């Protein structure tokens, strides 16, 4: 069974039955989270096999013809999102309908062009997911601490808005109101183009010598992690949000050409400055990324050598707890052929010395810190 215990046991803000159309990763994850709060969840999916799998894993029950949902969540691929929204609005005229598609403007334009009454429709998008899809990969906690964009308009009833934002809050997410245009431009920059960049870079590995690939470390793994995503889904997402994505790609291509030109002859006056400014601008951009709990906080790192034996990582965490050092983030890297790994631990700046001195006193080897 998929673990749903990470969602706190409390009363749900969404009262009444919730119908989820689409029992893939997001739909099933929403189902798990709501069921953990005691909500009656009815699942529907065009694929009988996918639906049975989601039900077997505990994401909800099968939808019935006499269901009367208060909220409908459409979690289907982008190319059929508008069709399913239209159908659900007709079938359940008293329910509020939202969708979790990663593109908001394209389905909205389609629905408006068809003359669909959108009074009880509110587009939304949880900024959450995993590299692997399907009901088998669903988790109740993937929305915790993540932004959940809600695209309301002037005609949206306050009660409908409260229901959709209540859903986000029930799942541990943070509702953020944006227009569909603002949303699509934002996800082009922070989601869609990064997917393409990761895929393009990882694609260079296909014909790379085996010797080169044996040198791969955590940096390249971090950079290309999302390249494992499903091509079929991303063809739809990128096609639906093509214009904002192209705008970012064109600007990125200009930046790449500028760096490439500088490196063709590094001795040319200004070439090194171009490279340095590129790296520095990246530093500034990283500083703006929200960290733990959405905070724009700068953490420092302590890299600890950990023997590749059972229980060592647990012992490290336990001793950090004894030292009153909170772990803000963690990355693990294993060196090929080595009998140890490197645990890169992020802590608040004031805790670095406390962590280093305390761990060394307990016999841990410190490979490096941010200030090294």
UniProtKB/TrEMBL annotation:
Which terms in the Gene Ontology molecular function aspect does this entry carry? NAD+ binding; prephenate dehydrogenase (NAD+) activity; prephenate dehydrogenase (NADP+) activity
Task: Report which superkingdom the organism of origin falls in.
Answer: Bacteria
Kindly list the biological process annotations in GO that this record carries. tyrosine biosynthetic process
Keyword check for Oxidoreductase, yes or no.
Answer: yes
Could you tell me the EC number(s) of this protein? 1.3.1.12
Pathway of this protein? Answer: Amino-acid biosynthesis
Q: Which residues form the Prephenate/arogenate dehydrogenase domain?
A: 16-293
Q: Please name the top-level EC class of this enzyme.
A: oxidoreductase
- Entry's family note: Belongs to the prephenate/arogenate dehydrogenase family.
Please identify the protein, giving its name as recorded.
Prephenate dehydrogenase
């Amino acid at each position: 069974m998929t673990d749903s215990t990470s969602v706190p046991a409390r009363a749900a803000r969404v009262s009444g039955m919730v119908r989820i159309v689409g029992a893939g990763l997001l739909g099933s994850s929403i189902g798990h989270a709501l069921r953990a709060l005691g909500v009656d969840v009815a699942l529907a999916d065009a694929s009988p096999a996918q639906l049975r799998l989601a039900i077997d894993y505990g994401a909800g029950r099968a939808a019935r013809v006499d269901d009367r949902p208060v909220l409908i969540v459409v979690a289907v691929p982008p190319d059929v999102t508008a069709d399913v929204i239209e159908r659900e609005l007709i079938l359940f005229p008293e329910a509020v309908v939202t969708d979790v598609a990663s593109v908001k403007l394209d389905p909205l334009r389609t629905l408006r062009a068809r003359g669909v009454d959108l009074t009880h429709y509110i587009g939304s998008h949880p900024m959450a997911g995993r590299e692997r899809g399907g009901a088998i990969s669903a988790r109740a906690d993937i929305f915790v601490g993540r932004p959940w964009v809600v695209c309301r308009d002037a005609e949206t009833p306050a009660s409908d808005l409260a229901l959709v934002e209540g859903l986000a809050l029930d799942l541990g997410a943070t509702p953020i109101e944006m227009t569909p245009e603002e949303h699509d431009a934002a996800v082009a920059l922070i989601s869609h183009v990064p997917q393409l960049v990761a895929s393009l870079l990882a694609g260079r590995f296909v014909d790379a010598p085996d010797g080169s690939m044996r040198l791969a470390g955590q940096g390249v793994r971090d950079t290309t992690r999302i390249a494992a995503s499903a091509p079929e889904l991303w063809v739809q997402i990128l096609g639906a949000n093509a214009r904002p994505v192209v705008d970012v790609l064109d600007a990125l291509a200009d930046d790449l050409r500028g760096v490439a030109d500088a490196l063709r002859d590094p001795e040319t006056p200004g070439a090194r400055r171009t490279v340095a400014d590129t790296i520095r601008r990246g530093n500034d951009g990283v500083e703006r990324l929200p960290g733990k709990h959405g905070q724009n906080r700068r953490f420092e790192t302590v890299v600890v050598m950990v023997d590749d034996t059972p229980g060592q990582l647990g012992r490290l965490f336990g001793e950090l707890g004894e030292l009153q050092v909170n772990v803000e983030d963690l990355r693990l890297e294993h060196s090929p052929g080595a009998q140890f790994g490197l645990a890169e631990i992020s802590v608040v700046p004031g805790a670095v010395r406390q962590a280093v001195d305390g761990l060394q006193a307990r016999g841990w080897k410190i490979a490096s810190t941010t200030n090294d």
